[in-house]
User: What shape does this take?
Amino acid sequence: MDLKTPENTENKDSRRRPLTRIQKLIGRTMLEAKQTKAFGYYSVWADVTDMVSMRKEYSRQTGIRLTTNDLVLTAIVRAAAVFPQVCAKPNLRAGLWEVPEKIGLGFAVAAPQGLVVPVIQDAGRLTLAEMAEASDTLLRRARANRLTPDDFDGATLVLSGLGMYGIEWFYAIAPPSANGIVSIGYIADEVVPAEGKPAIRKQLNVSLAIDQCAADEMTAAAFLRKIADLLEAPWTLTDKPNLPISSND
Assistant: This one.
């Protein structure tokens, strides 16, 4: 058989495709991150039953489209304010830690051109509503392939989520510029003990991969636990922390 027939050539070409510019960039940066960061890995479960109800109620009362990602992004920066060490950039030669004045908060987006990580600048100053607006703006621009180089600059911490694919939990790789990355899976109904009886509660796995040069095990664990605690008390992330959840949801 002639191996150079048009049919065989077409099959061979279909198995070999050039990498896109984004794919090449992702490959280089992820390899750099694994080679230059001493990552530690942590995972915790958060009871987000109240968060699911709160998200719907908050959107109904304010008219703001609030997503689970918006709540987790806000929880991350609030927890980082309590444990600023997770954002510190170590200067090992000088023996110094440098905590940045502003937090750049990135989040992974599956855009048409590939996986991208736009960054919300100075995220620590934003309210929950402002976080929702900023993330939605960047998400729309990413999906329209309209991000600028400045939109990728300065990630201190990053969020990645794969819940829409039915992934329960995973550890992601943080970009080289970031100290760590928080990963979330899908929200699952689980039977858990409550006051001595079984109850169905909504559970979310929250995982963290963080550079141990910036944060030791105890700091990283406390930071992740703080994120989970905030998600379990979601109204504390708003400007109305004492607002009750309506029963008419």
Notes: The CA atoms of residues 78 and 124 lie 7 Å apart.
